[in-house]
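Morning, I've got a small favour to ask if you have a moment. It would help a lot if you went through both lines with me. I owe you a coffee for this, so here goes:
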Amino acid sequence: MPNLKKTNAMRMLDSANVPYKAMEYEYDENDLDGHHAAEFFNLPYEEVFKTIVAKADTGEHLVFCLSVDDELDLKKAAQLAGVKRCELIKVKDLLSITGYIRGGCSPIGMKKKFRTFFDEMILLVDEVCVSGGQRGLQLRLRAEDLIGFTEAATGDITQ
């Protein structure tokens, strides 16, 4: 993809020599659901992960990644993170906190390094897709590379 502009997520993976494949797709502003990306690439939902940012009762921001077909369980997420409670941040605050917009939020290359957690189902797949840092862009890479690069913990965080 010679015309594809490198995102911060791609630059960070490049600098760490983490192999990935950038995959572009058409998106609809009114339908930013991750199912669309999975269907476009004909991938099972278990291999396409969405990124959700929450704020703990401690004030810390936390990043949770799970299959596009699953829903985040905030109680389980808080327990895995070792905090009492956490709640989703407001969409309007996403850009100022992460540097990314809704539909293009990647667990790689946020403004700051936040503690990151993947649903344990990631351990069952070899490769996974996450947002590449902009709408219409997915990065496909080995699940273990993604977990290692983000220094993430894994556990049950789904409903």
About this structure: The chain has five helices and eight strands.
